[in-house]
Amino acid sequence: MPKIADEEERAQEKKSTAELETTARNQSAKKEIQSTEKAADNNLPKEWIEPKGLSKDNIIGDIEQGVSTRRKLAFFQHVAFVSQIEPKNVNDALCDSNWVVAMQDELNQFTRNDVWSLVPKIDAMNVIGTKWVFRNKMDENGNIVRNKARLVAEGYNQEEGIDFNETYALVARLEAVRLLLAYACMCNFKLSQMDVKSAFLNGFLNEEVYVSQPPGFEDHLYPNHVFKLKKALYGLKQAPRQWYEMLSNLLLSKRYARGVVDKTLFI
Question: Whole-prediction pTM value?
Answer without folding.
Answer: 0.61
